[in-house]
Amino acid sequence: MALDLPRITAAAVRLLDEHGLAALSTRTLAAELGVRAATLYWHVRDKDELLGLDAEAICAEAFDIDESQPWRDQLATGLRQFRALPRTHRDAAQLLRLRPPRGPRRLGHIETTTRILLTAGFTPADTAAISVLLADHLLASAVEDDRRAGAAPHAELTRSAAA
Question: Which one of 3.90.226.10, 3.90.470.20, 1.10.357.10, 1.10.10.650 gives the CATH number of domain 62-158?
Fold first, then answer.
């Protein structure tokens, strides 16, 4: 089977689910795929890019917002859907919290929240602040939920970035 980004991403998410963020490295991923690390680097520049691909994959589900509903209901629905994302994969909340949104899926979630708030009449500055505050709060609470549930300790992404 040819090595491509969808296959790499699927294997990386599988490793994340099985072993957690601390164990995810380009070396372990290369071994999982049955290739040498150098082959993997042909497709993925470094661990940072790999983690970005994982974050995008976790956020593959688009928000399903009924735009005919009042803005508060739209926002509540979007926030519930966003809050559910970290529950779909091990250490996902930690990954999403530490990875800035760059890809189209994650940015799409932000754009949905922004659209709702702007349509409700919030200023662009308030919309930006509210969006960041809500996302940070939801992800921080998901990390705390994991901690309380006795999930394995989360690793700092920078610690193993060279792996």
Answer: 1.10.357.10
Alpha carbon 65 to chain centroid, angstroms: 20
Does residue 149 surpass a pLDDT of 90?
no
- The residue with greater pLDDT, 35 or 150, is 35
- Alpha helices (H) along the chain: 5-19, 26-33, 37-43, 47-58, 71-84, 92-98, 104-119, 124-148
Taking 50 as the threshold, does the pLDDT of residue 8 lie above it?
yes
Give residue 41's identity as a one-letter amino acid code: Y
1, burial (CB in 10 Å: exposed 0-12, middle 13-18, buried 19+)? exposed
pTM of this structure: 0.79
Angle at 84 between CA 78 and CA 89, to 5 degrees: 140
